[in-house]
Structure formats: C-alpha cells, structure tokens
What we know:
Elements: H1 4-7, E1 14-18, E2 23-28, E3 36-37, H2 39-54, E4 60-65, E5 73-74, H3 84-102, E6 108-112, H4 121-124, E7 128-131, E8 136-137, H5 141-145, H6 153-161, H7 163-172, E9 176-177, H8 178-183, E10 189-190, H9 196-208, H10 212-222, H11 224-255
Parallel strand pairs: 2-4, 3-5, 4-6, 6-7, 7-10
Antiparallel strand pairs: 1-2, 8-9
Helix pairs in contact: 2-3, 3-11, 6-7
Organism: Methylobacterium ajmalii
Protein name: Enoyl-CoA hydratase/isomerase family protein
InterPro entries: ClpP/crotonase-like_dom_sf, Enoyl-CoA_hydra/iso
Amino acid sequence: MARFDTYRDAFPNARLTRKPNGVLEVMLHTDGGKLVFNGHTHEQFVDLFHAIGEDRDNRAVILTGAGDAFMDAISPEGFDFFTPQGYDKILREGRKVLGNILDIEVPMITALNGPVLLHSEYALLTDVVLATPETVFQDKPHFEFGIVPGDGMHILWPEVIGSIRGRYFLLTRQVLDAQTAKDWGVVNEIVPQDRLLARAHEIADGIAALPPLTGRYTRIALTQRLRRLVEEGAGYGLALEGISAADVARSIAAQA
C-alpha cells in the first residue's frame, strides 16, 4: 500500500494535491505548462497510476492538464520505436499504463482543459468526462508517424462511440468538437474553462462522501467490461503498432 507522502513529489510531470476528504487532483504538465508527451512521460505515467491505485486513502481521482490543452503535443525524445529492445519497452509500458489506470479502484473524473490530440484513451478509461467548449478530440500522431493506433485507441473509441464511428474517427483523423463528443457519449458535461475544476471537485466531493467501499466497489463493477477488452486487445494492438513502426524504420533507412 502506497502512502501519499511517498509519491506526492515523485513525478516531475504530474502535480498531485489531495484534500482531507481523499479527493486527489492529478495535473499533467511540463515545467508547469501544458504537457509535452514523450518517452519519459510514457514510462513515468505507468508508475504514477500504479502509485495512485495502491493508495487506499484516495477516495476519488481528478485527472486534468495544465495550460490550454490536456494533451496536444508530443516529442520523440525518449522513444525507441525502431529496435526490438526499444519497442519491447514501449509495448510493456503501453499495456501497463492502461491496466494501472483500471487498477485505480476509486471513481475517476477527467477534466479536459483543452484539446486532446493524443492518448485520449486515458480519459476514456475514467468514469466521468468533463470538457470545456475549447476541447476537441483527435488521434493525430499515429498516422503522422505512419504507425497503427494500437495503444488502446483501437479498443476504446469503437467501444465508446460505436464501431463504425470509431473506425472512421481513427482512419480519417477526424476532429470531434466538444458538442459532438457530448452528443456521441464521450463527454458528460461541457463546462466553461473557469468552472471546470470546480465542477470536477463538486462531483468528486459527492463521490468521496459515499462509504469507502461503496465508491471503490462501484468503480470496480463499472469497469469489468473495459478490463476484459483491454486485456484481450491491448497487447495485440501494440504488437501491430510495433510491426508498422519497424516497417517505417526500414523505409527511412532505405531512403538514407
């Protein structure tokens, strides 16, 4: 069992604050501004979500971002897509991070403070999704890099918005505005930017007021199907992503 004081300051890209009622706020960032996702955060977030899930004093979790985007920027720094050993690390972390989010056995709320152009699967594994009018969704980087969107996107988007819509979303790099996302069941509420975190805390405080086992076991009950889908499909999808990355690497090498 983890204790908050042992991991509160352990993650350079996550600002963690917890209220006396057990509501934990997790703000993803880079140097205090919006997060720039890279290979180091890919590794770091595996341990972040594991630590949160191991802390039985957490009663509800709010996941949000800093600045004007939840996650819209990515850097290749720290990634090695193009060797077996490098991709083995990515595959392991890709499977673990999804499992570790689902292993957080208290209700989770995502407060999307702006665009979500990558790793929107983090939000889709939570229980309540709030967005601002400025929030848009897209799976941008996979096809830009020429690789399969196999890190959970291929499972969760068709599950949430329907098979035909989900496949179209990924294959065309479709941009979903906040209202369309709400109409399609991705978002629960659209909240003005200056009210976003207050609304997230309002919901989280209500959950934290439940008997501890009630909140915890409700999250477990509600995520059983997602657990099965992720366990069944995440490793396979990541393997296909790795094969496509190897093909890209070969093409780059042939052109050099």
